[in-house]
Amino acid sequence: MTRTVVESQSKTVVIGFDEPFCVIGERINPTGRKKLAAELEMDDFTTVEKDALEQVACGAMVLDINSGAVFSNKMEADPRYADNNFVEPMLMTALIEKVQAVVDVPLCIDSSVPGALENGLKAANGRPLLNSVTGEEERLELVLPLVKKYNVPVVAISNDDTGISEDPEVRFAVAKKIVERAADFGIPAHDIVVDPLVMPIGAMATAGQQVFALVRRLRAELGVNTTCGASNVSFGLPNRHGINAAFLPMAIGAGMTSAIMNPVRPQEMEAIRAANLLMNHDPHGMAWIRANREPTPEGEAPAGARAGREGRRRRRG
């Protein structure tokens, strides 16, 4: 059975066909977050630390760390800040150090810059997930040696030099190519987590059906775990969280084993917990029960505790 193991300093998370769905928190990403990018430019990591703590408290099992910030003001003083190959490696190290100081969960190191990926691998405790490699020849030659060198699993995104195909057959072929090239480097299939790419349902009516079929095929034919950027499916539509909350259990039912998503949204997290229960990935339903148990009023014992104590007193009498 395919098991992709990621680790922090003291915690292990297993992504697998018979494991609870792995929630990878997406919030530590300055792309499209002007306030966060401005804070990072001032070496202020307050929001990063807050996001790390909040995501873990809400159920994130792994945290994605993306260093794709643009430092507009610093560019004026130092032209090097216009170069992602300079900015991202430096920022990645700082982000990982700040996050690991406040939470102890495995990390997903996310960058398009190989130097940032390697800096992340050097700074991360345990065994992080590397995000990502694509089917482009140049990217394969740059990233797969890092995966082998540091013995880490990697997200494989199903696009190549021709871009993102709307044809699911092409996306499967790219994923297969990456798995085969990884094997040439001695990287096993269980350390490849394929992202088959979720298209926006508002632009492509069959986007959901395509990804469900791809997930089933990737599992059956390549034996790999899968992930996705879950919110892509609802892009441009109203009530995005409603769509995401329907999409995630359907993807889980098709065999998807993880997603990069926002765990702070209770509607989506509740849908995942219910799917875990229904897929028999929640032993004895304990995670569902814990999440939905009525809170104990202040000053009262938990349900059943008082009766147990009274029963013991009666027996002693």
Salient structural properties:
single chain, 317 residues, globular, 15% strand, eight-stranded parallel β-sheet, two-stranded antiparallel ribbon, disordered C terminus, TIM Barrel, alpha/beta
Secondary structure topology:
Blueprint: E1 3-7, E2 12-16, E3 22-28, H1 34-41, H2 46-58, E4 62-66, H3 72-77, H4 84-102, E5 107-110, H5 114-123, E6 129-134, H6 137-150, E7 154-157, H7 168-184, E8 192-195, H8 207-222, E9 225-226, H9 240-254, E10 258-261, H10 266-278, H11 286-292, H12 305-316
Parallel strand pairs: 3-4, 3-10, 4-5, 5-6, 6-7, 7-8, 8-9
Antiparallel strand pairs: 1-2
Helix pairs in contact: 2-4, 4-5, 5-6, 7-8, 8-9, 9-10
Could you explain the architecture of this structure?
GO terms for molecular function: cobalamin binding; metal ion binding; methionine synthase activity. InterPro entries: Dihydropteroate_synth-like_sf (IPR011005), Met_Synthase/Corrinoid (IPR050554), Pterin-binding_dom (IPR000489). Residues 293-317 are annotated as: Disordered. Belongs to the vitamin-B12 dependent methionine synthase family. Keywords: Cobalamin, Cobalt, Metal-binding, Methyltransferase, Transferase. The chain has 317 residues and is of the alpha/beta class. The protein has a domain at 19-126: Dihydropteroate synthase-like (TIM Barrel), CATH 3.20.20. Helices cover 47% and strands 15% of the residues. The chain contains twelve helices and ten strands. It has helices spanning 34-41, 46-58, 72-77, 84-102, 114-123, 137-150, 168-184, 207-222, 240-254, 266-278, 286-292, 305-316; strands spanning 3-7, 12-16, 22-28, 62-66, 107-110, 129-134, 154-157, 192-195, 225-226, 258-261. The strands form two sheets. It has an eight-stranded parallel beta sheet with strand order 9-8-7-6-5-4-3-10. Strands 1-2 form a two-stranded antiparallel sheet.
